[in-house]
Amino acid sequence: MSQIFDQFLKIVIPAALDKKGSDISVINLENQSSFADGMVIISGTSNRHIHTLATSIQKELSLKGIISRLEGLTSCDWVLVDSSDGIVHIFKPDIREFYNIEGMWSSFVTKINPDDYEQKNNILSGDE
């Protein structure tokens, strides 16, 4: 995984977990794609929840100096947060299932377990 995408994940995943994003998957596209180093797929429960997830993730990226743009905020069934090196797809579960992005990249997908992720980051930061 590229260092840039790793730093992107260290911003996006905590921001998503903080706003109760669910079923988080990471797709590492390093040396597989010319459009991004990787993607994060997140499910939201409603249009408002998806909107909140997207704007919160964009805000956290901005605070770290990463410019991103949002697409899909008008309907909020599927919102894209695009920072060029990393892309976040936030879906309603039925829309996510229909497009099945994880299926297209199945050999590059890692599911994020929120409990394991938070515990690992607390250990690394000394918060345990």
Protein described:
With 128 residues, the chain is an alpha+beta fold. The protein has a single domain, classed as Beta Polymerase, domain 2 (2-Layer Sandwich), CATH 3.30.460.10. The chain contains five helices and six strands; from the N terminus they run αββαβββααβα. The chain has a six-stranded mixed sheet. Helix 1 crosses helix 2. The radius of gyration is 14 Å and the shape is globular. The two termini are 26 Å apart. The C terminus is likely disordered.
Which class do the helix and strand fractions yield? alpha+beta
The overall strand count is: 6
- How many strands, which pairing sense, and closed or not: the largest β-sheet? 6 strands, mixed
Could you name the CATH topology? Answer: Beta Polymerase, domain 2
Question: How widely separated are the two ends?
Answer: 26 Å
Q: What is the helix tally?
A: 5
Strand content: 15-25%
Shape-level CATH architecture:
2-Layer Sandwich
Give me the Rg, rounded: 14 Å
The main sheet orders its strands as 3-4-5-2-1-6
Low-confidence stretches: 122-128
Helices and strands, in N-to-C order?
HEEHEEEHHEH
In round numbers, the mean pLDDT is 87
